[in-house]
Automatic annotation (TrEMBL):
GO terms for MF: transmembrane transporter activity
Name of the molecule in the record: Inner membrane protein yihN
Gene3D superfamilies xrefs: MFS general substrate transporter like domains (1.20.1250.20)
Major facilitator superfamily (MFS) profile domain sequence ranges: 1-397
Signal peptide: none
Name of the encoding gene: yihN_1
Pfam family, one: MFS_1
Location of this chain's protein in the cell: Cell membrane
Annotated membrane topology: Multi-pass membrane protein
Species the sequence originates in: Flavonifractor plautii (Fusobacterium plautii)
Predominant cellular place of this UniProt entry's protein: membrane
Domain of life, source organism: Bacteria
Alphabetical keyword list: Cell membrane, Membrane, Transmembrane, Transmembrane helix, Transport
One GO CC term on file: plasma membrane
Length: 406
């Protein structure tokens, strides 16, 4: 029984890691993606905008879908739908096809998949301690699976004629995982969330920490978007090879997160969210400023790589505190789910405009556009610091930590 349950958790975590890898191939393998689909920077950014148009509301309303229908069936549907879109990207051509696929990715990966995944995870974890361990391993598993898949794909690129085959490869893996889910994963039985309640939504909207947490996530995602362009930045401005820059992008998405997630958690427990986020942001801003002021040429390649690595370390460490303000502030359990949904929607909404804006900068200003990206990242850092200060004032005024110690 234990092994079956443990395998179910691993299967669910793997499916969720890989289902998001497909739409974000354009970020991890930026240069290869643009060349394979013959896109400009702006066009690549617009694709993420189309993805976010359906993904952002999906965080708010996906829970209703998971409450009404079988979460297991929704997981299967999301995997097969995402796979079908991946095959469409491989077998069909044209920018319109890509826009339709990315619009569909938002529906399949977030609106259909995310809340069903969260509900099924709770079904696999029977007791509170087990749930804590299960949710605690998600970030680690995401990084591990992402690293294996991405570095495996990077190694494969030397043996294939076109990067487009990566979309078909991911699609095939998702079909295999869907089949495993059909036969090996138990569905939710007797686990129901509270019915949708307008009064609860109003309470969540009215709570200040909902918005402070949402803006902290937004600031972090602005920084994360900027870090996604370190790949072409290192290649185009400082002269690193495409393979090295891509490997660095994978390190950004997976390896660094894998290494620092434990450290971030320990520091977060010691300092609490406001102090933790402010300290991380101060170090992160120093690294971003350092990248901004060094000579923008190949002579600075080594120092640029070192600074970029520091940016990844500080940003990945700070991720540990992105979603802790709501539980830390003792928001009532009855509205926590709704508050987290609003928080996620606010934070992830940056994808609607940020990638398109940055793509436009790079197309119109060339390498100078990367300087604007760094300034945008600093704006995101400033947003996190301001909201963390306001969060500290809220927690102090409401004696949050004094109550925790009683």
């Amino acid at each position: 029984m234990f092994k079956t349950k443990k395998f179910g958790v691993i299967l669910l975590l793997t499916s969720t890691c890989l289902i998001y890898n497909l739409p974000y191939l354009s970020s991890t393998f930026y240069t290869q993606f643009l060349e394979a689909f013959n896109l400009s920077n702006t066009q690549a950014g617009i694709l993420i905008t189309f993805f976010s148009l359906t993904a952002t509301p999906g965080y708010l309303f996906g829970g209703m879908l998971a409450d009404k229908f079988s979460p297991k069936k929704l997981i299967i549907l999301s995997l097969l739908m995402t796979a079908a879109l991946g095959y469409a990207m491989y077998f069909m051509s044209g920018y319109t096809v890509l826009m339709v696929c990315y619009f569909g990715f938002g529906i399949s990966t977030t609106f259909i998949h995310w809340s069903a995944f969260m509900k099924l995870i709770r079904a696999q974890a029977d007791d509170k301690d087990d749930q804590g361990r299960t949710f605690g391993t998600f970030e680690w598993c995401y990084a591990l699976v992402g690293a294996v898949a991405s570095y495996g794909l990077l190694a494969l690129l030397g043996y294939v004629s076109s990067f487009k085959i990566a979309t078909a490869l991911y699609a095939t893996i998702l079909v295999i995982i869907a089949l495993l889910v059909i036969f090996l994963l138990k569905d939710v039985k007797g686990i129901n969330d509270n019915d949708f309640n307008v009064r609860m939504v109003k309470q969540a909207i009215a709570h200040p920490v909902t918005w402070l947490n949402g803006l902290i996530v937004m600031g972090m995602f602005i920084v994360a978007t900027g870090s996604a362009y370190l790949n072409p930045y290192l290649n185009g401005v400082f002269g690193t090879s495409v393979a090295f820059a891509t490997s660095f992008a994978i390190m950004n998405k997976c390896i660094v997160r894998l290494c620092v997630v434990g450290v971030g958690g320990m520091l977060l427990d010691k300092w609490k969210t406001p102090k933790f986020m402010i300290i991380c942001m101060v170090f992160l801003s120093a690294a971003i400023v350092g990248m901004f002021v060094i000579p923008q040429n190949s002579g600075s390649m080594v120092i640029a790589v070192i600074i970029a690595f520091l940016i990844l370390i500080f940003m990945s460490t700070a991720r540990s505190g992105m979603y802790t303000p709501i539980p830390e502030a003792k928001i009532p359990m009855a509205i926590t789910g709704t508050a987290m949904g609003i928080c996620s929607a606010v934070g992830y909404s940056t994808d609607i405009w940020s990638y398109t804006l940055i793509g436009n900068w790079l197309d119109n200003y060339g390498n100078t556009g990367y300087q604007y990206v760094l300034l945008l990242s600093l704006a995101g850092v400033a947003m996190v610091i301001i909201c963390s200060i306001l969060l500290y004032r809220y927690e102090k005024r409401h004696h949050i930590f004094e109550r925790s110690e009683v």
